[in-house]
Amino acid sequence: MASISACALATAVEFVCSGGKSASFLPNPKELLLRYTLACDLEDDPERFRELAQEFDVGAASFGYDALHALRARYAVDDLKKKVIDGLLLDREKTKEIVAF
User: How many degrees, rounded to 5, is the angle at CA 50 between CA 19 and CA 12?
Assistant: First the structure.
């Protein structure tokens, strides 16, 4: 696990668990990217990582950022996370094909 303060970890986890929304804190794109990236870096459970990556992709798409491809590059040497991301990218492509019909 990366060296990080307990406060920073708690803040990142709280942000992500709230769906990136808070009455007192509406993140700008840079903040959203930083916090989701940190949460993804720290998540070791494949299913929870999948959920985070999927939420990250949806949130970042609202301002034109492709989170899945960015995460794919970030975790190129992490076989477990890379496999999860590849699955999400495949799901995305299948969805695009279905919508095209």
Answer: 40
- Burial category of 54 from C-beta neighbours within 10 Å (exposed 0-12, middle 13-18, buried 19 and up): middle
E-strand ranges in 1-101 read none
Whether the CB-CB separation of 29 and 60 falls below 8 Å is answered with: yes
Quick: pLDDT tens for 33-71. Answer: 999 999 999 999 999 999 999 999 999 998 999 999 999
Cβ-in-10-Å burial (0-12, 13-18, 19+) of 6 comes to exposed
Whole-structure pTM value: 0.71
Confidence band of 101 (pLDDT split at 50, 70, 90) = low
- 3: region left, alpha or beta (phi > 0 left; psi from -120 to 50 alpha): beta
For the chain, the straight-line distance linking the first and the last C-alpha, in angstroms and rounded, comes to 44
